[in-house]
Amino acid sequence: KQEVTQIPAALSVPEGENLVLNCSFTDSAIYNLQWFRQDPGKGLTSLLLIQSSQREQTSGRLNASLDKSSGRSTLYIAASQPGDSATYLCAVDQTGANNLFFGTGTRLTVIP
Amino acid sequence: DADVTQTPRNRITKTGKRIMLECSQTKGHDRMYWYRQDPGLGLQLIYYSFDVKDINKGEISDGYSVSRQAQAKFSLSLESAIPNQTALYFCATSDSGGRGQETQYFGPGTRLLVL
Fold it and tell me: What is the pairing mode between strands B110-114 and B10-13?
């Protein structure tokens, strides 16, 4: 069974810092990897989707990379802002049917 | 208005009661999903549906059932609720495009407490 791990579980950084969140998965046979953001009391919001044939995707200050062979993905956030404070979840689609296996998340706090 | 809505947003029930959580979407997507999230854990897939006549079990379907009443509506039922079903429940939708390309869109969640 696919297992998805995110380290660290929590991270606090001062505003303006660049930071990296990590995601690892045990089975490299995936269709895509997705990063989501979860705010308290709200649902998940999709940030980036990297297909298995891609190595990275960018959206604004966010850049996600994928190294399928080593079972790793990183989410890079540039020039962090207090509004970036949230829990970040990664998830992998192993079948192409969009049945996602989620990691446990990294809770990010950006201190003004 | 939100694209994916869930009702109720919060629910307290007692052990043994039957309850239903409802999900509606206005995105016109074929695929719908139910997940649960426990504190400190990631989301786990309960059931998913690719269209009105196609319903499939996820990782943790025991103790749950679903109904896809229409393309836009997908309900989750707990036939006889038990305390370890206390969790945050999310509904999600996605399009049925090419493999490996579909983003999921989530509702705001239903917080369920079973006493």
Answer: parallel
Measured torsion, CA atoms of residues A12, A13, A15, A16, in degrees rounded to the nearest 10: -150
B contacts of A98 (beta carbons < 8 Å): 31, 33, 48, 94, 102, 104
Each residue's pLDDT, cut to its tens digit, for chain B (115 residues) gives 569 999 999 999 999 999 999 999 999 999 999 999 998 788 999 999 999 999 999 989 999 999 999 999 999 999 999 999 999 999 999 987 666 567 899 999 999 999 9
Which residue is associated with the tokens 């660049």?
A18
B94 in reach of chain A (CB within 8 A): yes
CA B1 vs CA A39, B24, B55, B107, B108: distances in Å: 18, 12, 27, 12, 12
* Cβ contact A72:A90 at 8 Å: no
Distance from the Cα of B110 to chain A's closest Cα (Å) equals 9
Beta strands in A39-97 (DSSP E): 44-51, 56-59, 62-67, 72-77, 86-93
CA distance B50 to B32: 7
